[in-house]
């Protein structure tokens, strides 16, 4: 790989941005493609799939073989709320390769005993702006039922175009949530991206079943794109 391409890959990696290195197998010619550049690329459809899956591989098009090497940041999951659902959710997410952070200023809930082996921050979200520096490979699950805790992370996640934004609550609760978020300047199109009620509709009843439903929805959003 040329030094310029390696530099581009390293720069993207540090910025948690996905990038593909496309190689013409016959000629050896290479070039980099970012997610912002794929729309005009001849391999657009294939690149869309690979940016979602993160998988490298050989593509044949009109008799020309091309190798696409994907460099995709590891997905992150930020959970707002140290509740029973979160206790069941974070081990599943970790097993699926997600870097997990749980945030809840309520110290009675956010205890190391309840959340062993995961990054746990017993702070108000507004006091940890570096954690709310979300990106397109971050998923957010807000599960506190408390707008004082949930709303700011939801706003930041929508502004950053996180690949998944979900929130716990009834339809009535969510309608009020949408009003509050739109009052911050978010558009109707942006707030429509919130998955609420959170999780796939599998009839989940227990916290463990809800956690499975949430993780299924997160993975579907990551691998298949927004519904």
UniProtKB/TrEMBL annotation:
<protein>
    <submittedName>
        <fullName>XdhC family protein</fullName>
    </submittedName>
</protein>
<dbReference type="Pfam" id="PF13478">
    <property type="entry name" value="XdhC_C"/>
</dbReference>
<dbReference type="InterPro" id="IPR027051">
    <property type="entry name" value="XdhC_Rossmann_dom"/>
</dbReference>
<dbReference type="InterPro" id="IPR052698">
    <property type="entry name" value="MoCofactor_Util/Proc"/>
</dbReference>
<feature type="domain" description="XdhC Rossmann">
    <location>
        <begin position="77"/>
        <end position="218"/>
    </location>
</feature>
């Amino acid at each position: 790989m040329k030094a310029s391409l390696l530099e581009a890959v390293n720069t993207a990696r540090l910025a948690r941005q996905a990038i593909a290195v496309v190689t013409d197998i016959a000629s050896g010619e290479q070039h980099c493609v970012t997610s912002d550049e794929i729309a005009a690329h001849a391999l657009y459809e294939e690149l869309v799939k690979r940016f979602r899956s993160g998988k490298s591989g050989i593509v044949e098009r009109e008799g020309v073989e091309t190798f696409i090497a994907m460099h995709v940041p590891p997905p992150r999951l930020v959970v707002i709320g140290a509740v029973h659902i979160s206790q069941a959710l974070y081990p599943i997410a970790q097993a699926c390769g997600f870097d997990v952070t749980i945030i809840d200023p309520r110290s009675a809930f956010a205890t190391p005993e309840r959340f062993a082996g995961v990054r746990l921050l017993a702070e108000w979200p507004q006091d940890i702006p570096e954690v709310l520096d979300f990106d397109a490979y971050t998923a957010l699950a807000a599960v506190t039922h408390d707008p004082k805790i949930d709303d700011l992370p939801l706003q930041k996640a929508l502004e950053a175009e996180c690949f998944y934004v979900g929130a716990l609550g009834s339809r009535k609760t969510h309608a009020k949530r949408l009003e509050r978020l739109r009052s911050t300047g978010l558009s109707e199109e942006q707030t429509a991206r919130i998955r609420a009620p959170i999780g796939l509709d599998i009839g989940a009843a227990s916290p463990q079943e809800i956690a499975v439903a949430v993780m299924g929805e997160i993975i579907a959003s990551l691998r298949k794109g927004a519904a």
